[in-house]
Amino acid sequence: MMKKLCFLPNLNFKTKLLLMICFFNISLVLLISSLNYKWYSNQITRQTINETQQIIDQIGVNIDNYIDELFRLTLSPYYNDEIMEELKSPSVSVHSTLNKKRKIENFLSSVMTLPRNEILRVYVLTDSDIYSYIRTPYEMNDYYTYQESNWYKEALQSTKPVYIPIHSEKVFGNKETQIFSIARKIRSKEDNSITLGVIKVDADYTGIKSICDKVHFENKGSLFVINGNHDIVYQNNALINQDFLNMIPADLTKGDFILNFAGNKYIINVTTLETSGLKVIAINSYEELMKTTRSNLSRTIMLVLICIIISVIIFILFIQEFFHPLFNIIKSMKLVQNGDLSIQVPVKNKDEIGYLAISFNKMLININDIMNKNSKLIKEVYESQYLNKESQYNALYSQIKPHFLYNTLNTISLLIKCEETNKAVQSIENLSCFMRGIMNTSKEISLEVEIKIIDSYLELQQMRYGEKLTYSIEIELEFLSIKIPTLSLQPIVENAVKHGCELKRGNTHIHIYSISNDESISILVTDNGKGIDPAVLSILNKRLEDPCQTAIPFSETNQLEGNIGLINVHRRLRLKYGNKAGLKITSVKEKGTTVILHIPIITSKEEDPYV
User: Is the dihedral of CA 454, 460, 464, 466 positive or negative?
Assistant: First the structure.
């Protein structure tokens, strides 16, 4: 927290102190308010969930009782002996048939249909006859094929009422209406094994609607009744659509959960009726539920902020008086920051701030003495380090230079002995070009000159190896003027020739090219030679990453034979450019080696710290 305050360097101590106090006070208020809001919100949410669950459970009980009443209505024929006798007795004439039909249908009308407006149709079905009373202009869909219907067969096989789930049929007009049905087998009272028929009742959902309409949720809550296919049987809020209901898990039979839909949170309560399989769903908007809580939270925060503002004003007056001596010390520090080390702070108090002023004055006196002593010492140390770096540079330079000359002169000697005069002359010219480059008194040359030296060297090696050695050089023109230490690339190329042509059968190709970014340039030398042994490569990379550039132990000298030149080049680059420069070597046995020479691009404003 203090570090965050330190990110305000332009503010004085008084302002930072005030900000810190305000920050702590406001943070504390916000923390307590948020915790209290969270606790209260959870309490309100849990209370709403529990109360809503109790309500929909009671609605479910009422709907179950309503359906049970319909179940009991299907038992009405058993309480009328005349109707039971008519169902049991066969018709012997047309007159008796009509009389039987009139009695049964009048019974259905008076006992079952008229007292209950939600009952649309009621049938008594036997193997040969249909007796009905209907309120609608349409008969049931399977009127002529009822004996083949599953519900009819199921009713004949069961002694309990059969609930036929929601289905759509034409009732009034051409539009289909959702209805449900109840069927029960009618058996003889004298002999239960004798089936007299099946009674079937079709009803709409006005009875369920009247039960649900008695319930009103606060905070714009919604109540739904749906079937197993998520078809809406009842709803009191048209804003909730089918897509919303489809988000409710089909396997949830009872319980509650929070649903996020269209960027809003909703509290969902669900209960399922065992008899009908209907689901009663209550939906409460979390945002509406929390409106009052958020309003109380806002008023509390505003009141506390007003109190904080008043306390800050009082605290400002206190700080102005109490910290006045400290502000005098701060003013003196600013003068010291501008270079005036002769300043002395007047001491007026004997408290902690007075002690701070005395210590500050003593510190300035000591700083003046130390700076005078260190100025001379720093100069001596810098000169010593510079001479040491220059000595290392010269030693490494002289170590690399003879390495190439020996190989070149040996090649020319072989050409002369073989009486290949033209090639020998060409080799001497190439050697002359090389010597002109390295005999320069300067210890660094341009990349263009270095490339010419390498080109001369590779032509000499091609005279020696013929078609066995090929090479290509692709350096961006804009980098040819960059200055690099002399013979930085030649030992790398020489190693590529050695491991490619001398130690490998077959042709060898050496590719030299450059890549760059805004800060550095990398020159890559790749070959398809035998590669470096993994153990040697590990030691070599370890030496390249040695930050202290210690001497190579005798135990590693034999293993690094032929690669010491690379280590020398790497150290020269580090001496010249620092740790941003150097070599990186990757190699795969029997496939080749890649050496990357990496140097930073030094702009005109930068200076070389070692030259």
Answer: positive
Residue 525 and residue 489 in contact, taking contact as beta carbons nearer than 8 Å: yes
What gap in Å lies between CA 249 and CA 63, rounded to an integer?
Answer: 22
Q: Specify burial of residue 319 (Cβ count, 10 A radius: 0-12, 13-18, 19+).
A: middle
Q: What is the DSSP letter of 560?
A: T
**What are the tokens at 351?**
């408290």
What are the structural domains of the chain? 74-201 (3.30.450.20), 209-291 (3.30.450.20), 382-600 (3.30.565.10)
| Helix, strand counts (H, E) of the chain | 17, 17
Give the integer Cα–Cα distance in Å for 301 and 299. Answer: 6
pLDDT in tens, 75-123: 888 888 888 888 888 877 888 888 888 988 888 887 666 667 788 889 9
Return the closest-CA partner of residue 592 out of 509, 502, 493, 522: 509
Q: Are 268 and 282 in contact (CB under 8 A)?
A: yes
DSSP 110: I
170, 179 Cβ separation under 8 angstroms: no
Q: Which residues pair with 270 in a beta bridge?
A: 255, 281
* Pair of tokens at residue 12: 């004085």
Strand stretches in 42-139, DSSP E: 119-125, 130-134
DSSP class per residue in 249-304: -TT--SEEEEEEETTEEEEEEEEE-TTT--EEEEEEEHHHHTHHHHHHHHHHHHHH
Radius of gyration of the chain (CA): 51
Integer CA distances (angstroms), 524 to 131, 502, 521, in order: 101, 21, 10
- Per-residue pLDDT for 211 more than 80? yes
Query: What residue type is 440 in one-letter code?
Result: N
Q: Is the dihedral of CA 284, 287, 290, 292 positive or negative?
A: negative
Residue 146 gets which letter from DSSP?
A: G
Distance CA 25, CA 590 (A): 71
455 in Cβ contact with 473 (< 8 Å): yes
Tokens 């003889």 label which residue? 188
- Determine contact, residues 326/357, Cβ cutoff 8 Å: no
Q: Starting from the edge strand earliest in sequence, which strands make up the sheet with 592-600, in order?
A: 469-474, 508-516, 520-527, 592-600, 582-588
CA distance 286 to 243: 19
Q: Express each pLDDT in 196-208 by its tens digit.
A: 999 999 888 888 8
- Asked if residues 184 and 192 have their Cβ atoms less than 8 Å apart, the reply is no
Two structure tokens written together for 298: 């806002």
For tokens 């013979």, the residue is 487
**How long a stretch of residues is the chain?**
611
CA-nearest of 545, 609, 548, 605 to 577 is 609
Helix (H, G, I), strand (E, B) or coil at 177: strand
- CA triplet 25, 28, 29: central angle to 5 degrees? 85
Whole-structure pTM value: 0.46
Instruction: List C-alpha distances in Å: 458 to 436, 507, 511, 560.
Output: 16, 15, 11, 23
Name residue, tokens 């709403």: 48
pLDDT digits (tens, 9 = 90+) for 494-529: 888 887 777 777 889 999 999 988 888 999 999 988
Q: Which residues pair with 585 in a beta bridge?
A: 595
Query: Cβ distance 155 to 184 under 8 Å?
Result: yes
